[in-house]
Amino acid sequence: MLTTHELEPSEMPDFEIHLPALRGIQAGRPFFIALCPTKFIPRLIPLESTRDLKNSPFVREPDRNRSQEISQYLANNPATYVLPAITCLIDGEVHFSESGSKGSASGSGTLRVPLAARILILDGMNRRAGIEAALKLRPEMGHETVPVLLFVDSGPSRAEQILSDIRRNESRSARSQGILVMRVTRPHGSQGS
């Protein structure tokens, strides 16, 4: 006879996702630039991740129209699309296994992120939503990678500080610049956004 029992949280194995990454230091704190397979983005970075920061003046709601534009751009330009990094804050413990020479503040290696860690989107919410929609249109895109900039710290106050710094120091280029470049580099009649 087969018997089973419910596992207590302390008995559950620590499942992790392993990502190739670069480690750097800013303001005395480590940060990572990870290469994440596109198919893992929806699971690793949930859109609901910023719900604890809803009342923050720095958190933006996803723009459905912009997310759809990004999705169409990715689906219609499989050989030429460019997708900037998604910036996140990990509220949890991560482990970095450095490859090559050990002991330097910077290096390359493997970042191990527990699936139980909470990841907050700081910048790139529309890109994140656009990726999820594009995967439905072009599932083979799931084997490509997306850069993810990860800061490691805990607590909403650190997240708000990083969001404040990003918003204060960002500059927006005119949409007309992108349209002009698109017209110059794409033949007339080709799809793009």
Give structural notes.
The structure is a single chain. The protein is of the alpha+beta class and 193 residues long. It is built from 5 helices and 7 strands. The protein has a 7-stranded mixed beta sheet. α2 (64-76) packs across α3 (125-137). The longest helix is centred in the C-terminal third of the chain and has 14 residues, at 156-169. It starts with 15 loop residues before the first strand and ends in an 8-residue tail after the last helix. Residues 1-5 have low confidence and may be disordered.
Q: Would you identify the regions where 5 or more consecutive residues have pLDDT less than 50?
A: 1-5
Number of strands: 7
Query: Structural class of the helices, strands and pairings?
Result: alpha+beta
Described by strand count, sense and barrel closure, the largest sheet is: 7 strands, mixed
Radius of gyration: 19 Å
State the end-to-end CA separation: 60 Å
The share of residues in helices is 25-40%
User: N-to-C SSE series?
Assistant: EEHHEEEEHEHH
How much of the sequence lies in strands comes to 25-35%
